[in-house]
Specification:
Length: about 290
């Protein structure tokens, strides 16, 4: 039985959700006699497994070979085939196959399952990010509260030596229920060099935390890589608005935006066009941040 398009699309969605790489191969043009018509699809997994078909024979073998060489790349490719005896499909026609990489969705780790963490998880999921939520309070990490989170891990920084893998490609949002918890997480996360490490808190609390960590031996240059106060200045006040500002900043970093004033010199530029009374601390909070709403 031929693989239906809905099965192909479901598999692509599952691979993206589960963090699996592959290539979607689609016949986009045909001329003359060909084994498959335009629109025929095949998914090639990183381990060589396939779902669907673009015609069989040497055409399909060459397509699979080319697809496997693309694993890890974001650039699509187009292959042209003449169906003669050499291709093992002596149909006499011609085919063009478009190869589109299937890349895993970016994962984001939200440390803190309070009001802001809940909002960040929702917005991040809506933006296509794969969400893991961490908190030491088991009662707030229910499936009902975080239905779209891929993982809900109960515990503290000890998880970094077990179920929680953080490395150079990781995106981590620290929005715990209190300043000391934030500090403890940053202390353990920073040496792992995540791609994005954001910490909630007012400008004063952020500077106090950085000073403490610097006194403990963490380099100032490493500390300055932290996105804190977290989020882009959009005048956010509610947890939901703060979440939008945080996810917007994450997307900017993912897209390679590194030269805007808001991202490079946040402490100096946040609230630069706003009256002093409304100057934001943590992505749009008042002077004391949003620690009371976490």
């Amino acid at each position: 039985m031929a693989t239906r398009p809905v099965e192909i699309y479901s598999e692509v969605a599952r691979m993206h959700r589960d963090g699996q790489s592959g290539v979607l191969c689609t016949v986009i043009a045909v001329d003359g006699s060909t084994p498959r018509s335009a629109g025929a699809k095949m998914v090639v997994h990183a381990d060589g497994r396939t779902l669907g078909s673009v015609g069989g024979g040497a055409v399909e073998a060459d397509t699979i070979r080319e697809a496997l060489s693309m694993i890890g790349s974001d650039a699509p490719r187009t292959l042209d085939f003449r169906l003669d005896e050499e291709s093992e499909l002596a149909c006499g026609g011609e085919m063009r196959v478009y190869l589109e990489p299937i890349t895993p969705g970016q994962a984001v780790i939200v440390v803190g399952g309070g009001h802001v963490g809940l909002a960040v998880a929702r917005v991040a999921s809506d933006a296509g990010l794969r969400v893991t939520v961490v908190d030491d309070r088991a009662d707030i990490l229910s499936e009902e509260r975080f239905p779209r989170a891929e993982r809900r891990l109960v515990g503290g920084t000890e998880l970094l030596d077990g179920d929680l893998d953080v490395g150079e490609s990781s995106i981590v949002v620290v929005v715990t229920r209190g300043h000391l918890h934030d500090e403890e997480w940053v202390r353990h996360l920073l040496p792992r060099g995540p791609r994005y490490l954001g910490m909630i808190g007012s400008a004063n609390k952020v500077e106090s935390t950085l000073a403490t960590l610097e006194a403990e031996g963490l380099s100032r240059s490493a500390l300055e890589s932290i996105h804190a106060p977290i989020g882009i200045d959009i005048g956010a006040e509610t947890p939901e608005e703060i979440a939008v500002s945080i996810v917007a900043e994450i997307i900017a970093v993912m897209r390679g935006v590194e030269d805007t004033a808001m991202l490079r010199q946040k402490a100096d530029f946040k609230g630069r066009n706003r009256p002093p009374a409304r100057r934001i601390g943590a992505a749009g909070s008042g002077p004391e941040g949003v620690s009371g709403r976490r």
